[in-house]
Amino acid sequence: MARFDGRRVVITGAASGVGQATARRIAAEGGIVTCLDIADGGGATTLELIRGDGGTATAVECDVADPAQVDRAIGVATDAGGIDALINCAGTGSYQRFHEVTPAELQRVMAVNFYGPFHTCHAALNALLASRGCVVNIVSAAAVRGSAYLTTYSATKGALLSFTKSLAVEYGPQGLRANAVSPGAIDTPLLRLFTPPADADPHLMHRSHGLLGRMSTAEEIAGTVTFLASSDANHITGANILVDAGSTA
Q1: Has residue 130 got a pLDDT over 70?
Q2: Torsions phi, psi of 182, nearest 5?
Q3: Which pTM does this prediction carry?
């Protein structure tokens, strides 16, 4: 398949997990990928994997919570020829009881999960409008169902989902598509940040695991993200696709 031949795609959180899997998938389909991440020099390992597979990519170190760094990183992509798709995979979080959440922790998670995509979309908007491109934001099933010990994470992802839909409505008439993918539990490095409280109620935790007996893989989520960023989804905007093994069923 070559759905992305010559298309320029910016992916945040590209150093690992869903971001890395998506970057490799799009590059394998002919995309020219700009990898952004705060870790690994912006995704140097991902860059090596893509180039080893014969793909084209660059890596730019970027903290998406810092609008100045975002402006610089998006500028690298636009100066290289424009942006056809922006995929926001960067995220963070942890399990915490609500009464233990501090204002600093709320700000930290909000800065990455919501302000990050806000900054990247703001910086890339003109380039995306020029290309009649698209945005895909990684949200979470936790945005649409109650989740114990995830009040902060859920709130930031709920904000991101509403933002995505509003972006689709406001700029759809100008040709911009904006969609969300909401995974359940994924077997990625990010999941290691999510250690339940020692006395967590297992019955409250179990409902997030889904119906299929295992967690999703990063590649499974990347498949849906890649579809939404491709021309196969040209008439889809404002959507939220749940890839959660039925946890919200």
Answers
A1: yes
A2: -120, 95
A3: 0.94
Residues 240 and 67: their CA atoms lie apart, in Å, by: 26
Query: Which of 168, 169, 186 lies closest to 91 in space, CA to CA?
Result: 186
Helix (H, G, I), strand (E, B) or coil at 240: strand
**Backbone φ/ψ region at 4: left (φ over 0), alpha (ψ -120 to 50), beta:** alpha
Sheet holding 32-37, edge to edge: 56-61, 32-37, 8-12, 85-88, 134-138, 177-183, 240-243
Domains of the chain with CATH codes: 8-243 (3.40.50.720)
To the query of whether residue 149 is one of the catalytic residues in this protein, the response is: no
Distance from C-alpha of 70 to C-alpha of 37, rounded to nearest angstrom: 10
Paired tokens of 109: 């998670």
Q: Which of these is catalytic: 115, 149, 153, 171?
A: 153
